Amino acid sequence: MTEVSLNQITKKFGKQTVLNDISLQLKPDTIYGLLGRNGAGKSTLLNILTNRIPASSGSVLIDGQTNINNDRVLGKIYLMSEANLYPNRAKVFQIFRQTAHFYSGFDFELAHQLASKFGLNENLRFSKLSTGYRSILKDIIALSVDAELILLDEPTLGLDANHRELFYRELVETYAQRPRTFVISTHLIEEIAGMIENVLLIRDGKLLLDDTAENLLAQSYSVTGPEKEVQEYTAGLNVIGHDNLGKLRSDYVFGQLDEERVLPDTVTVEGIDLQKLFINLTGQTDKEGQL
Ligand SMILES: Nc1ncnc2c1ncn2[C@@H]1O[C@H](COP(=O)(O)OP(=O)(O)OP(=O)(O)O)[C@@H](O)[C@H]1O
Predict the structure, then answer these.
(1) I need a labelling partner for 58 at 20 to 30 A (CA). Which of 18, 21, 125, 180 fits?
(2) How many CB atoms lie within 10 A of CB 262?
(3) Against a cut of 0.90, is the pTM above it?
(4) What top-level branch of life does the organism fall under (predicted)?
């Protein structure tokens, strides 16, 4: 069981502060969704975790040890990202072998099985792989390495719908057989919503949410009905956004409702999904909705 903590991580690129004093601990054997708008700093965070780039300040501790120039602890983490770290001439099976030099428990059997399921020809050179198959190769490696913490930065980039579904299925299957921690950064929230146990949401350089999906959804509502009644009902609640649908209005509320308030017959309250919650928490153009 590997303990991972980020302590007051700040990252600046020139004058731009991308991550601002982020602290968190990753729970063992948990699937995380790392969410945030384009440019929010998700890749930067994952790169700092794996020491691919340095933080401006703060520290990353893996089982209590720094991740800086520390192969022993970095061997407990695998980052799948857009970066192509393989020689163009290397063939797929050679890349599997190279990976096993660093991750000695690399599961060749699983890698072969997955290559076959995805239709990845192991004799092809890396340079000959399409964008989708490059992602597939890296995803297969991510599922086959013996690391305790698997970071997936846009793992389905370029994958068609069938391959995306196959990948999620295989991820859940390997997770059931060998629990470990996954952090999945993706914009396809709907597709991973069902398997995310914990949500990390970055906004304006800050870690806005770090909670179970269950807790978050249990306090996320849409309140729909005629505009006047809806606004009267939600006045003073934490309204994070709204939609107008003809004469109807939906207010999205994050946080507890007021049990004392009488719900008019014309107004309905329903739960919302993770994607709707995300859009409303990160899409504000004004200051409505505070956490
Ligand atoms: N090497 C770099 N030099 C300067 N700025 C950088 C560098 N890397 C990232 N940035 C900036 O940091 C910010 C965060 O980038 P990052 O790639 O971490 O975001 P992201 O959340 O992964 O975005 P996306 O969802 O679009 O992939 C962006 O404004 C980006 O331009």
Answers:
(1) 180
(2) 7
(3) yes
(4) Bacteria
